[in-house]
């Protein structure tokens, strides 16, 4: 964990979409005890559980979630249970405490995981859980995303107080680095405030696949075509991503297989994957309508493997107040992909290779790109 963090949006509870996706991924079965209970009316007992806790900045996405029965959910959230790097169940070791015998029966068992490999629990979120609940020590130099702050402080599950030095009073979720670890207190240096209050996005309607067990690919094709006709840009790709994520979970098919099934112009396997990543970037649909274009976001997807990193880059661009054009974004991306230093001279040379930028104001393009890069570097810079 030292040397990295997860830059994520404060999410509160999982969205209705993510909850339903987790139910489908785990077939309403608890990922730990593997039991599946229903009420006499057919309502499942299982619940969506965060791995990297929501109050500590855990993102609203399937890879940060488990489907658990109420008892195992409590055990996972209270410090009885965690996971190791192989997604095997780890149990806290206090045999004298009531509850140990029940949870200990799951020790070293493999977690039930989805068949869709890219939506299985992510190690970076599991590692955060182990740190926050005492299964691994928090060490000096660890870089954490942590939330639930009140005036720069909070308490860990083991009762130790965490003090984030330099955090604004209104901060809820921050990036910080651990500077000192004691038996009663963990001290951290504030690096970046990610959220000051929970974001409230627009009302998001149901999708046609919420209450079905199978996907009609004719219906899927028609729905995607409707969205293609009704929306453009980031909004279109967000709507696509939301629908495709549900369809892929329910069908178990890959991006390419979905594309073959619907056979729709503009909906290739790559476009389906990219649209899902747009949806994952903005779980509450909190993108700027007049912000960075989808084509520019697609450029960012070329250089950043992690959705979290794409979101950080996107936020840095938006925060400058002057969103980059597609070509300006491409210049920045090409330089980073070449692993070159982003200097004024190199940026100017790259800008000059694009006629569209030469016809405009090349010096302004250079200035904007350098401003964005400086903000991006600041997001990951440590004192």
From TrEMBL:
Q: What Gene3D superfamilies is this protein classified in?
A: 1.10.30.50
List, alphabetically, the CDD domains matched: HNHc
Pfam family membership, one: HNH_2
- Outline the extent of the HNH nuclease domain: 30-84
Keyword Nuclease attached:
yes
A GO molecular-function descriptor: endonuclease activity
Highest taxon of the lineage: Archaea
Regions that span the bilayer: none
Note the InterPro entries from the entry: HNH_nuc
Q: Which UniProt keywords apply?
A: Endonuclease, Hydrolase, Nuclease
Q: What is this protein called?
A: HNH endonuclease
